[in-house]
UniProtKB/TrEMBL annotation:
Lineage: Bacteria, Bacillati, Actinomycetota, Actinomycetes, Micrococcales
Official protein name in the record: Glycerate kinase
Domain of life: Bacteria
UniProt entry tagged with the keyword Lyase: no
KW Transferase (keyword) present: yes
Organism, as annotated: Arthrobacter echini
């Protein structure tokens, strides 16, 4: 394949700078959703950097990252965490194999690999019937490992059930007016008449960290149903149905003795993952910036020491990226080290790159007329090409 080579990229440090020793490059991207994991993105870029024209070698350090969404467990595994696997209830009841990352004290669990939207095809979307139960089952498995801390990565959910499914898996019981136990999903929210909490469990004795950069509340025009429901297949009537169901859930939880339920529902982040943020906060989880937390957890500061350039990226760079998604967090943390962004597509004009701040943005869409967003092989080839181009433009003198 012969890729197009767009013009306009300037070499970081090209303003008179020369790198005379073996250059060190930290490759620290997020996943390209639907295409490649962060680890696969890192490998493809490194292959291009190390095989491009010119003498000498490039010292590539790979640090696949995450921000609390898809790929959070994979990023922890790539950083040396051990893998634990468990079969759990998928978003629409089918069994799925989910993974937990564990290093002896911290367990990382994620919605995306247990009850996530990516586990369903477009024809299988079930905005009313999808459940977060599988996430609760993954948490139970993590608890059995004896961690001191569990990181809850909430991105990519298929459900809008306010965490009802997760809480059911953790021992909470929801009844309708006839005393019948309800299954946790968006359709059942209206039917809840009472909720019973389980006896205190091991959850009360450990740190729960909710890693997410979503700031939406549970209810209202910026809430879980109205903003994210359509992404999960909900039409206008279903969105209204889910919104009313979530409001009813808050009323029931408050009536059950949780005086803070309404305040929790109004807090930033309670609307993440179809309302899982609300349920996790009720369990005592504290929310942190997903991007910043994973930079610390995975050792970004140490990995970036002594590097000449940092390459980061994600599937799409846009206004949300400026609000604090991973590439922006990496660029801010990098300090004076030049940062390049390699992305699937860029919706930011060149004059706004400095807002991240990055020196250049390389978008796969600039190198092909084909759609690479669902083509892992094409994406990897394009990333390799971009790696070669960065090598040829980055260092202005041949390496010894």
């Amino acid at each position: 394949m012969r890729a197009r080579r767009p013009a306009g990229h300037r070499a970081p440090g090209s303003e008179g700078r020369r790198v005379k020793r073996t250059p060190r490059v930290l490759i620290a991207p997020d996943t390209f959703k639907g295409s490649l994991t962060a680890h696969e993105v890192s490998l493809a870029l490194a292959a291009g950097l190390q095989e491009g024209p010119g003498k000498g070698a490039v010292d590539c350090r790979l640090l696949p990252l995450a921000d609390g969404g898809d790929g959070s467990v994979d990023a922890a595994l790539a950083a040396g965490f051990g893998r634990q696997q468990i079969s759990v209830t998928g978003p629409t009841g089918q069994p799925v194999v989910a993974a937990v990352a564990f290093d002896g004290s911290t367990a990382v669990v994620e919605v995306a690999n247990s009850c996530g939207l990516a586990l369903l095809s477009h024809d299988e979307l079930a905005p009313l019937d999808a459940s977060s139960r599988g996430f609760g089952e993954v948490i139970l498995h993590a608890l059995a490992l004896g961690p001191r801390r569990i990181v809850l990565a909430l991105g990519g959910s298929a459900s809008t059930d306010g965490g009802m499914g997760m809480l059911s898996a953790l021992g909470y019981t929801f009844h309708d007016a006839h005393g019948t136990t309800l299954h946790g999903n968006g359709r059942a929210l209206h039917e809840i008449d009472s909720v019973e909490a389980p006896p205190p469990s091991a959850l009360a004795n450990l740190e729960l960290v909710l890693a997410s950069d979503v700031r939406n509340p549970l209810l209202g025009p910026d809430g879980a149903a109205r903003v994210f429901g359509p992404q999960k297949g909900a039409g206008p009537e279903e969105v209204s149905f889910l919104e009313a169901g979530l409001a009813h859930l808050v009323d029931v939880v408050e009536a059950a003795g949780c005086a803070s339920a309404r305040a929790v529902a109004s807090a930033a982040g309670s609307g993440s993952a179809g309302g899982l943020g609300f349920a996790c906060a009720l369990l005592g989880a504290r929310q942190v910036s997903g991007a910043e937390f994973f930079l610390d957890l995975l050792g970004f500061d140490d990995a970036s020491q002594g590097c000449d350039v940092i390459i980061t990226g994600e599937g799409s760079i846009d206004e949300q990226t400026l609000a604090g998604k991973l590439p922006a967090a990496v660029a801010r943390r990098a300090g004076v080290t030049p940062v390049l962004a390699v992305v699937g597509r860029s919706l930011l004009p060149k004059e706004r790159w400095s807002e991240l701040p990055v020196r250049s943005v390389y978008a796969l869409t600039d190198y092909t007329d084909q759609d690479s967003s669902r083509d892992p092989r094409l994406s990897a080839e394009l990333l390799r090409t971009i790696g070669q181009e960065i090598r040829t433009t980055l260092f202005l003198e041949p390496m010894p």
